């Protein structure tokens, strides 16, 4: 809950661990020149930011809160590009330079991710000298890991170091998803080798949809980082560039793992489809053989069952047994012909 005191103590009020204040603020921290963080109780004014000692401020807001955008606008924390992206709900992954600031749209899994393709939401990040602003509409795992790391006392020396930490957390979350998916695919593959493929077809397709959606949303990130590294802001240090380069390489590696897992799932689906087609062909063949073998019985019984005059052997004392022998002979002939066809097909295959 926000501080009820009309004159709150500066830079000392501890925010709740989750949720948001009446300003829509989830957390706010000031990092000194050494990278150590102290919690802020409210959004600082532009004058406070301008007069602040060396370091930077990180603000993380909940856009689902009605007053969040208005508060940040009044504090001078929003530019037109960031405001438009937030209001339009832009989800296209990108990290681009705008003058001497960095604007990032990052897609991440929600806090309660349950392998549902819809459990992916967007985080908007604005990085400039002295300030980092991040905003989201749904709780996200990566930024929450970052928040908890700061709360535990982990130091961040620059705004780009914070962005790098966020991207590293995002890569770790994606790697965990890929690892859990791979473990499940191992189990399903064992079931497939035992011939129990039909029961897992829906689950395999669901896992593939999740990975495809994740890769589609996150794949542009390494190339976006590469473009940023090619033309970094003037205030970015060599250490900042090296950190972003490592984040880009790690994220690209995780995406390659995800792509390889997608290919593995596709091969498993192809194998499942082939086995299902083989079973269907076997069932169809069995049905065809039974139909052919029953043809003499159906034909003869149909002819003899007609209620017309001149039925053969109608008055013969052994007529039933004669017709039974005829049916047996025709069925035996059909059986011999079918066996020859099957043997010829096997020899030809």
Automatic annotation (TrEMBL):
Belongs to the CorA metal ion transporter (MIT) (TC 1.A.35) family. Keywords: Cell inner membrane, Cell membrane, Ion transport, Membrane, Transmembrane, Transmembrane helix, Transport, Zinc. Signal peptide: none annotated. The keyword Cell inner membrane applies. It holds the Pfam family CorA. Gene3D superfamilies: CorA soluble domain-like, Magnesium transport protein CorA, transmembrane region. It is a multi-pass membrane protein. It is found in: Cell membrane. The keyword Cell membrane applies. It comes from Roseateles flavus. This is Transporter. The chain crosses the membrane at residues 284-306, 318-338. InterPro entries: CorA_cytoplasmic_dom, CorA_TM1_TM2, MgTranspt_CorA/ZnTranspt_ZntB. Its main location: membrane.
């Amino acid at each position: 809950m926000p501080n009820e005191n009309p004159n709150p103590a500066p830079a000392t009020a501890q925010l709740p661990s989750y949720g948001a204040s009446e300003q829509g603020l989830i957390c706010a921290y000031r990092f000194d020149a050494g990278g150590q963080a102290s919690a802020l109780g409210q959004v600082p004014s532009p004058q406070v930011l301008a007069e602040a000692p060396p370091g930077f401020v990180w603000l993380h807001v909940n856009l689902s809160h009605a007053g969040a955008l208005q508060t940040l606008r009044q504090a001078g924390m929003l530019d037109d590009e960031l405001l438009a992206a937030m209001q339009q709900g832009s989800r296209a992954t990108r990290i681009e330079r705008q003058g001497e600031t960095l604007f990032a749209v990052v897609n991440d899994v929600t806090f309660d991710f349950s392998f549902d393709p819809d459990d992916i939401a967007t985080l908007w990040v604005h990085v400039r000298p002295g300030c980092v602003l991040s905003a989201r509409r749904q709780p996200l795992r990566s930024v929450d890991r970052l928040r908890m790391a700061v709360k535990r006392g982990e130091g961040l020396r620059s705004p780009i170091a914070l962005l790098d930490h966020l991207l590293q957390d995002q890569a770790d979350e994606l790697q965990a998803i890929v690892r859990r998916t791979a473990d499940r695919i191992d189990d399903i593959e064992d079931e497939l080798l035992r011939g129990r493929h039909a029961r897992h077809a829906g689950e395999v397709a669901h896992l593939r949809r999740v990975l495809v959606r994740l890769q589609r949303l996150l794949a542009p990130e390494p190339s976006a980082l590469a473009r940023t590294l090619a033309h970094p802001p003037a205030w970015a240090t060599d250490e900042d560039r090296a950190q972003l380069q490592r984040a880009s390489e790690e994220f690209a590696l995780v995406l390659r793992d995800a792509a390889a897992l997608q290919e593995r799932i596709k091969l498993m689906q192809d194998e499942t489809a082939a086995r299902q087609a083989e079973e269907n062909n076997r069932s169809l063949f069995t049905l065809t053989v039974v139909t052919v073998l029953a043809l003499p019985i159906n034909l003869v019984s149909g002819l003899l069952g007609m209620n017309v005059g001149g039925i053969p052997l109608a008055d013969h004392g052994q007529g039933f047994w004669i017709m039974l022998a005829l049916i047996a002979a025709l069925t035996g002939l059909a059986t011999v012909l079918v066996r020859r066809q099957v043997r010829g097909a096997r020899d030809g295959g």
